[in-house]
Amino acid sequence: MSLTEPQIEAVHSGEHAPAVAGRGPWRLAFDRLRRDRAAVVSAVVVALVVVLAACAPLLAAITGHGPAERFPTTGLTPEGIPVGPSAEFWLGADGLGRDLLVRLAYGARISLLVGVLATLLATVFGVTVGMLAGFFGGAVDAVLARVLDVVLSFPYLLVAIVLAAVYGASIPLMIFVIAFFSFAAMARIVRGQTFAIREREYVEAARSLGAGPFRTMFVDVLPNLIAPVTVLASLLIPTSIVFEATLSFLGLGVDPRTPSWGAILADSVDFYRVSPGLLLFPAALLLITTLAFNMLGDGIRDALDPRGDRIGTR
Amino acid sequence: MFARFLIRRVVFAAVVLWLVTTTVFILFYVGSAETVARRIAGPRAPQAVVEQIKANLGLTDPLFTQYRRFLGGLFHGDLGTSFILNTPVGTLLWQSLPATLWLVAGASVLWLVAGIAGGVVSATHARTWIDKGTTLFVLTGVSLPTFVLGLLMIFIALSVLAPLGFAFLKPGAFVSPFADPVEFLRVMIMPWFCLALVQTAVYTRLTRGSMLDVLGEDYIRTARAKGVPERAVVYRHGLRAALTPVITQFGVDIGTLLGGVVVTESVFGLQGLGQLMIRSVRDGDLPVIIGAAILASIFIVVSNLVVDVAYSFLDPRVRLA
After folding, report:
1. What is the pLDDT of residue A1?
2. At residue A271, does pLDDT exceed 50?
3. Residue A162 to residue B28, Cβ atoms within 8 A
4. Domain that holds residue A62
5. Which residues in chain A have their CB less than 8 angstroms from residue B159's CB?
6. Residue contact B159–A167, C-beta within 8 A
7. DSSP assignment, residue A81?
8. End-to-end CA distance of chain B
9. What is the CATH number of the domain that holds A232?
10. How many of the other CB atoms lie within 10 Å of CB of A250?
């Protein structure tokens, strides 16, 4: 196939060539993410969980059941067995005659709150420590790297259990504990990346133009850390949700009266043989939520890093 | 060079141990003397009894005296006596160890075999439906909290399998294989699979990534060009090099898990170190908590040390720093 004269003309002059719009790297990554079917489905699921959490008071108003309210006459059979799903209790009632659906919706708020806040806190600390260690190197790095080593060698589940037992289980403590034991892994990876970025020509150029260390760090290094940090943070959210649920299941997470998914599952232990929904609904909800976050995180990683060099998550 | 490296690592391990014990000591002795004494005395006991109990347990002494006594005992291998059970802490730890050891030993065989096999198959069939299926399994595995998996397993065993006449599996207290091998299996099979499934997911992902990296190396192409059969390329040349990060991870995991498989033991009611820890935290049994914390950190620190040393042998590129 050969080109006609006008076409060649057009190519040379650029007149009739289709317009090529410049797309930034974030735009490209977003377009790649949008084409990833698994990631899109996951994003929709995450959005639905957020809607569930946001609508918790609405569900309570519609059903007329508060999250801590007990309905011993309608929620339990005369023998004291929790009722199954019905028009009155959409997902059934729990062992104390409370509405399972309303409690799960309120539990979604706790899971999302703990997951997102712990991840934010861990990211801010992790990036700060990792960037300082990697950028300055030398004595600063030696000290910070040792501190990270120590944090990573702590039996974290044990320390979390001890803290919860001494100071009483609460949401702020939970967020702090998760953030404290997650920031080190983040910091270690940021440190490694900063080491590599520090040697790049554009950093040298900035320095030779007279930029100070903090300007270099925020203007030249930080923007290049956004991709790996976004990936790590998106995978840290489900980890934090699981951690919170696990501690609450052991009775050491949030206050046991709070309707958290872990606590709801712990309450189900005595009843799921007569009322399997008490176990199966919260278990499915927890699994779907963490799976969606993990798949979305995987999708974001693929979108930001099309060459496929993967960043370790542990 | 190697001696210096070793000394450095051992000193670091000792520092970590000291930090862990001191942190746990401070957290507990500062925070909860009153709570503990009150719990032992009972909710209706007069305050005088509570004060007497505190004095008997040595909780009214100045903090530094308590700390010195605690460290002194530690150096003599004496972890103290349980406040609640009146048994030496060492004995309690020793009694709980077999359940945890058997649990970790059985599960680790399962997850190593399944994880490495899954990773190799996934990597050699990259981008096929086998690989996609494996990836979905991995994502589900890492998303499924261990306690949810355990609860579902018990539910299936008791509410689905048992009514169908298959009542072999049951949750229950640990039984030594030397005392009753059949009962041992009945109790242990579910916890083994529960613990192993999540780990299998992690190991599959790790092996797959490592295997893909190695199979892209030049020497693999050289081996193929020489006409080495594909099977030998994958297993003898590829897998051997790909296993280094897997072994590192294995060392770290074993150390962490031996310190107490808290969740799995709690769900299935096995009386191991994790159960002991949870029980003593609930009872405010300070000496047992500290003893368990020390044992857990010893496992972690020692296994990290072994991994570091092994790594420098396995991978000559690692500089001993």
Report:
1. 47
2. yes
3. yes
4. 25-313
5. 272-273, 276
6. no
7. P
8. 9
9. 1.10.3720.10
10. 25
